[in-house]
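Sample entry was shown:

___
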Amino acid sequence: MEQIKSFLEQLSRMQWTDFLDIIIVAGLIYWLVPMLKSTGTGKIARVVVLVLLISWLTELLNLHTLHFIFNQVLTVGLIAIVVLFQPELRRMIDRLSNVKVHKIFGVQEDNQELVPVIRQTVQACEVMSKERVGALIVFARDTHMGEYIKTGTVIDAQPSEQLIRNIFFPKAALHDGAMIISEGRVLAAGCVLPLTESTRISADLGTRHRAALGMSENTDAVVVVVSEETGVVSVAVGGMLKRHLAPQTLERLLRSELCPEEPEQNNKMKLLQMLKKTGKEGSDK
């Protein structure tokens, strides 16, 4: 009881700037922690933590020479990190700069217009899988795709099964690169994606799968891959590759990643279903 009273007293003494401080710190943690899962930002974090840990240990054990050296390393460490990890830092800044205001305040964006786009993509992938036609389709989310679009050919068209299949037709000029879809539009095709640096990837997987994993490691995009050799359909998200997806599973996965239904919307749907069921039972009686 006394602890609760003490907490309430401290809470009453807090000013609006204290609450703002807590919100900003929580927001930074919320956005930075997932970024540490990627290969590039993980490297930076490990280097910084390692240097700080060694510096603390040298001070604790009274290793004066080593402590002096690591203090000097920390002094110029920021410049060294900028030089050594320039591409990774650029990607981190790019991702932070693309954080949308509505997501900071927890406002969900209506992405239900992507449902027909997903359906057309799944239908195209199903046909290409049967015909052993390779494909690489990137669904952009918050990360800016400008640098990747520049490597391909700008299209800016409404996605359709026929368009997707024509682009990846083996004799088509753009079939070797990746297609980028953003906000329900095919922005570009024939794009070059970064390859993964992971050594854990299976040797059986080719360049398309490595590019899909690399793109999912460097951005928040969802990448669909159709294998030219086996026809297997896979999806790369957050550096993870999910393989052997049936059309129904692929559609459910894309919907859950790209246009998840809000809890409130789910509750409304359940309520409508209950009302319909109740009405039907009443009419039967």
Summary: The radius of gyration is 25 Å. Residues 71 and 225 are 47 Å apart (CA to CA). Confidence is low (pLDDT under 50) at residues 100-108, 263-272, 278-285.
